[in-house]
Design goal:
mainly beta; 3-stranded antiparallel beta sheet
Length: 112
């Protein structure tokens, strides 16, 4: 396998739905440009036109900024959707070391 890992990607998913709560993960994002890395919550079937879209993301953007990974927070919702509210945030070393990321989702607010 020319020195590359034996896997190309991974996803952890649950078959149960959660309306609100706190969701947390310890992540070191992929450091190469073109590698998609994210920690996200997604309401099943949100991609359908007849379903309200709900999605929260910690999303690593590429390394075009002097080789540094950048973090974008996304709150995407709507019907028909999606309508996004993206924010680029300055979080250092997201691709060089593990950090703990969390969403707290309540009926009144979302906290990253």
């Amino acid at each position: 396998s020319r020195g590359y890992p034996a896997y190309a990607g991974a996803e952890l998913a649950t078959s149960s739905a959660h309306k609100y709560g706190k969701f947390e993960a310890s992540i070191q994002y992929a450091g190469a440009d073109g590698d998609i890395s994210s920690f996200f919550l997604w309401k099943p079937l949100s991609e359908r036109r007849d379903t309200y879209w709900n999605e929260l993301d910690y999303e690593k953007l590429g390394t075009k900024w002097n080789g540094e990974c950048k973090m974008q927070l996304n709150l995407i919702s709507g019907m028909p959707g999606p309508s996004g509210h993206e924010q680029l945030v300055d979080l250092p070393n997201i691709c060089n070391e593990f950090h703990t990321y969390a969403f707290e989702w309540t009926p009144d607010y979302v906290r990253y």
